[in-house]
Amino acid sequence: GENVEQHPSTLSVQEGDSAVIKCTYSDSASNYFPWYKQELGKRPQLIIDIRSNVGEKKDQRIAVTLNKTAKHFSLHITETQPEDSAVYFCAALWGKLQFGAGTQVVVTP
Amino acid sequence: ETGVTQTPRHLVMGMTNKKSLKCEQHLGHNAMYWYKQSAKKPLELMFVYSLEERVENNSVPSRFSPECPNSSHLFLHLHTLQPEDSALYLCASSQATPAKNIQYFGAGTRLSVL
After folding, report:
1. Whole-angstrom distance between the N-terminal and C-terminal Cα of chain A?
2. Phi and psi at residue B50, in whole multiples of 5°?
3. B90 contacts chain A (CB < 8 A)
4. How confident is the model at residue A28 (pLDDT cuts 50, 70, 90)?
5. Interchain contact B56–A (C-beta under 8 A)
6. Helix (H) or strand (E) holding A97
7. Among A49, A60, A92, B76, which has the highest number of CB atoms less than 10 A from its own CB?
8. Average pLDDT over residues B23-38
9. For chains A and B, what is the number of CB pairs under 8 angstroms?
């Protein structure tokens, strides 16, 4: 079955710096890769996604890159702000969504 | 609000109780999901209903029993749970079409089993 590994498990960044979270997946047939942000006590919310026919997608300060050959994809957050502090989950879809274990991002002023 | 509503938000129950979690979506989706979220573990997919038919059951103990009476409503019936079942239970919905599998989550039910 699909297995998604996510690193790092925690990430502390200074406000204004960039944050990068990486995920790898095992099933080469996976074709959809969403990223969710979950603030403390709140529901996971989709922040960006990418499909397998695209290598990169950007939305303001957030970007996602996909390397299908290496079977990994990454979330990039630039110019981080305190409100970016949350747990971020990656996921990969082949038939069903499999989630990574999450990355706790802390942005310090 | 994402259009997916879960009730109750918090639930405390003893191991001999019977309770039900409810999920309702107003997004016109036709697939619904139950996930279990435990601390420092990946989201665990429990059940999937697509077009009101259960299509996924990930080796979940029989003390969890899902019900999907229509495409807008999903229930999780709980019976004789164990303390290790304490977790956040999240409902999600999406279109059943794989190309449109963007899932929207409810706020979850925080369950504590004493």
Report:
1. 41
2. -125, 125
3. yes
4. confident
5. yes
6. strand A96-99
7. A92
8. 94
9. 46
Q: Does B59 touch chain A (CB under 8 A)?
A: no
In the predicted structure, residue A41 carries a pLDDT above the cut 90: no
B94 strand-pairing partners: B31
Residues 6+ apart with CB under 8 A from B18: B77, B78, B79
- pLDDT exceeds cutoff 70 at A22: yes
Nearest CA in chain B to A34: B102
Chain B interface test: which of A40, A50, A97 (most B C-beta within 10 Å): A97
The predicted-structure confidence for A4-18, as pLDDT tens digits, reads as follows 999 999 999 999 999
